[in-house]
What does this fold into?
Amino acid sequence: MKRSNRLVARSAVALSLAASLTACGTASSTTTTAVSSEAATETASETEAASTTENVGEDVWLPYNENLEKKRDDRDATGKNGAVASCNWYASKAGLEILKEGGNAFDAAAAVAYTLGVAEPYFSGLGGGGFMTIYSAKDDKVSVLDFRETAPAAANAQMWLDENGKMEQFSLDGVNNLGDKSVIGGLSVAVPGEVAGFEYLLDNYGSDAVSRQQIFQPAIDTANNGYVVGVTFKEELDSEYTGIAANETLSNIYLDESGLPYEVGDVIKNPDLAKTLQLIADGGKDAFYTGDMAQAMVDAVAAWGGNMTMEDLANYEVKVREPVVGHYKDYTIYSLPPASSGGTHLVEILNILENYDDMDKIGVNSAEYVHRFSEAFKIAFADRAQYMADTDFADVPLAQLTSKDYAAERYSEITDKSGSYVAVEPEELEHYATTSFSVVDQWGNMVACTKTINYGFGSKVGVPGYGFIMNDEMDDFSADPESVNCAEGGKRPLSSMSPSIVLYPDGSPYMTIGSPGATRIFPTIAQVIERMIDYNMDIQDAIDCARIYDNASENICYESGGVNPITPEVAKELQDRGHEVTDKGEWQLFFGGVQGISIGKDGTLRGGADPRRDGKALAY
Ligand code: GLU
It folds into this structure.
């Protein structure tokens, strides 16, 4: 598609947003060009657009079809030696290259992570953080690496509130009320953990088979050579346009020369980020957390009203934690302890469902099946609101919440009707950020990683000259100063992330799995794991299958399209049981983006990736 045609096709939303903004229209320093799905597969000599794809590689796998709609197939991969499943093809490819070059799953995970920060920059990156659940075959041990962002020392529970205790709005010169101060601007930024996390992983688990340069090179190349904008990228650009346009660094990278969001098929380059990645490749953790780069982050955050200091950055530490462990029908599940609530509630939900002796017979997405999940979710969310926070700051009854006895007690409260459970939070979160990936290597090492900058394009604070975006993870604290999860200096905000590793009943590795999706994360993972165990579903089929969500509001959100949807008859029966129901349509980003790898009993690796986003699994 030629650029002039694309301009005609620009969305009315973007145009009206542009007209209403005084801060947009900054000249772009980024080189971009347009390619369509068709052009990407044409030979280089055929069209101007096709010659562009030569720069980004002729073998680019695009997550959308010739109508510029997300593909709903071609996501899975099968292999014997290694597999990677991520939310982005460039990142999966980076990981697979490292595996093929002889690197282990931990080397490959770092390559995937850094490439995701380049080619899927709206959901995670150097300015963010996350968690990994890893299995080291050599040690036969599962560990959790917590590289979650941490509140700056100066943070406190009142800092976003006006004198009436109400959330203040973030405003800049000329642009008022860009959003809650916990979501956009400097006070939404927590100290990032991503670089510390992957440096820790490489230092402690990486192999000598590949160099640091090899690990960083795919991300550096992707930033220098450019990557094709997919449908999810475009959706995020449009929905976060106002905030992006307000920040000069982000505008320069992610808006075109007219100050408008790039279109599907455009190619974005980010040479500043390539330079930053090279500095980290050469200088390790210190290159990020001290010196010029740290100062640039502190200055960018301060310019937008924040309070993160050089000391906050220098003090950042990865926490190595014992995983939460649970069992569902003799399968073992390892997942995250706080600062994520995800692993605990994943185990709690599966424990509750285990009390039914016919879960494997009632049929996926029958009314009874949806009802049971809905009740288990509501119980978990009520417990989440009551107990869950960073265990360095609060006593959390983890042993109770993950015990079979407690689950049996809660199960006994469930009737055929919709039950009520009290949960003050969470409110319905309508943002779709974060990313998750899985890696398995030929030695059996496994990584499940979920990482984020929180909202799409995070706090909208770009770091000038370095090409990355600071998170707005502070919003994962409660704005209620009385909450167990209120903001405090040095505390990690409560997450729902649940990257998990599952073992077969005989103790051998079965799968690595994770998902983005805010509070939908652990409900989503619970549904996929249950389908694989109870219905013997292939991982891709289990990911494709329609999902539901309920967070104690007695309102079941469901997918009414796609694979194995909730039918109108099922929705009606759920209403008859007292549930409110909300039809979310089909293939909804709302329900996350699961990326996982299962290991067959014969050693076959099956990578599954979510068609709700741009996921792609690769294997060899
Ligand atoms: N920040 C959220 C969490 O840690 C994830 C955001 C998302 O997945 O959209 O749970």
